[in-house]
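hiii, so i know i said id send this last week but things got crazy w the move. better late than never?? heres the sequnce for the chain we talked about at the cafe, plus the structure i predicted for it. fair warning i was half asleep when i ran it
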Amino acid sequence: MYILYEAIASDDPRLTSNIQKKNDAWHYEIAWVEPSTIEANPIKWLRYREITTHEAETPRFFNALDDEVPVMVIKSNVADLIEPTSFSDPEYEKQMYKLTQNDKDNTVSLMKKIMKLHTDNHVDDEVTRNKLYTAIDACNTLTETQMCFATYFEWECAYTATRDKIQEFGVDWSIPAPRGDNPEDTNFVVPTDNPPS
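okay and structure toks below
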């Protein structure tokens, strides 16, 4: 199964071999975890959310402008798209990949899951949390979702950069995420295959 969790250090001693990182998405990581390995190597401490295979492929579309993203090679399978390493490469011929409706739907779904997980991890005030959930749930299109992300989560992309972000309510992002680092936290798990020294 694919999971989404807040980014952690690659040398975190709690990371076990059953967590195979596949992608990055804002302050979050996407990994594949074989479900049969979870009992032996619990992952609850990651405070993760399950996502679909299609959602796992969409972080490359977060910055879409006019439903397009630049790529080096266009492929029919989204997972096979080749993104440029540098737009200044003289040998690079920019091609534009036009997002399908499925691409947009899966991107919106993943962005909403990230915003909700970030809200869960960082907002203790129930009133603010509920207002954020309502704002997130109201997003239906990619541009609406991009604007919500930019307005309330301090994220930017080409579409949102020149637009006014007017918050209907304030959000305090200074609250650190509970990471299970406290042994008294019920989410704290010491992995069996990589114990701390």
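btw The CA atoms of residues 108 and 140 lie 7 Å apart. thought thatd interest u
miss u guys!!
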